[in-house]
Design brief:
The protein has 144 residues and is α/β, with parallel strands linked by helices. The protein is 38% helix and 19% strand. It has a 5-stranded parallel beta sheet with strand order 2-1-3-4-5, sandwiched between helices. The structure holds 1,3,4-trihydroxy-5-OXO-cyclohexanecarboxylic acid. 1,3,4-trihydroxy-5-OXO-cyclohexanecarboxylic acid binds next to loops.
Length: 144
Amino acid sequence: MTRVLVLNGPNLGRLGSREPDVYGSTSHDDLVAACVAEGARLGLEVEVRQTDDEATLVGWLHEAADDTVPVVINPAAFTHYSYALRDACAQRTAPLVEVHLSNPHAREEFRHTSVVSAVASGTIAGFGVDSYLLALRAVAGLVA
Ligand code: DQA
């Protein structure tokens, strides 16, 4: 079974209570369950991790690169300014899909820039939790 890492950046552990009008009422635990279930349906072994720490996220990306593991990543606010994260994504050795719950292009101007998109296989944004499920479908197609 192909392993996939789903990596969530800062503040995403607070899903459900964090700005529900923007990010919905699904909790991070519910997001994990939905990703694992969709992965099982697609024949993927999905592991979901969340951190508020940039260095930890970079370390997980190194691990994925070393082990040739596909990644679905929501870099959260790091999307918009973390060149360290961008450089870690650039080292990928397997598909890497950037996801966002909201549509950053329909929000504040600082969210219109992603420093990650150019080194990702693709980006899916604006579909809430379904963004992750669509990303897992994309990964399944890319590794098939
Ligand atoms: C987000 C969008 C980012 O702009 C924001 O900083 C987040 C979440 C999203 O999933 O919509 O934390 O990545």
